[in-house]
Amino acid sequence: MTEGPPAAPPATPDAAVDGLQGLFEEHHRLIFHTAYRVTGNASDAEDVLQTIFLRLLNRPPESLDTAKAGGYLRRAAINASLDLLRSRKRSRLVAMDQQVLEEVGPSSAVESDPARRFASLELRERLRRELAKVNPRAAEMFVLRYFEGYRNSEIGPMLGTSRMTVAVTLHRLRKRLSAALAEEDQKDQKDQEETRRVPQ
After folding, report:
1. Among 63, 88, 113, where does a domain finish?
2. Per-residue pLDDT reduced to its tens digit, 97-127
3. Maximum distance among all alpha carbons in the chain?
4. For the stretch 43-72, what's the b/e string if a residue is b when 16 or more beta carbons lie within 10 angstroms of its beta carbon?
5. Shared-domain flag, residues 68 and 137
6. What distance in Å separates the CA atoms of residue 9 and residue 36, rounded to the nearest whole number?
């Protein structure tokens, strides 16, 4: 009776830590920058980075395919960032139409006009708050498309779905955001009108 090759010895705690250290050195910038684009805050991005590696410490070392670690860790950064935003339970609505989404997307040039740059930053912050309220899978697609710059044809395989599903999901989400923008603008206008009526 022939025996198979000897089984690999179980990973020691030191070997697991060394493997995690290697992953950290290779991917920590990717995780931080992805988290920063979603949260808009360096401190939050650091928290996300720490959270992800603490979670990895509790997993068996062999459970993560190091060849695909980059894609996994990017998605983990997006989801942990969205979880962080959701945990704050911010209540203000956010919205923007397709043109605005493209203007604040990853391919846009840096604005030289401070007023427009501030408007874009404010718009991104409002968007982050709204993304904390939507279906997590739709939010992940949105982040990959508009924050990370992936095409629909790339997002589909990343999330195990079709390009068409990605396109339909993003279309519906953009409509929701546009409707929220219109609603918030009407509310702001009404508040301003009421403020002007108050005697000074």
Report:
1. 88
2. 344 444 445 444 444 555 555 556 777 777 7
3. 98
4. ebbebbbebbbeebeeeebeebeeeebeeb
5. no
6. 39
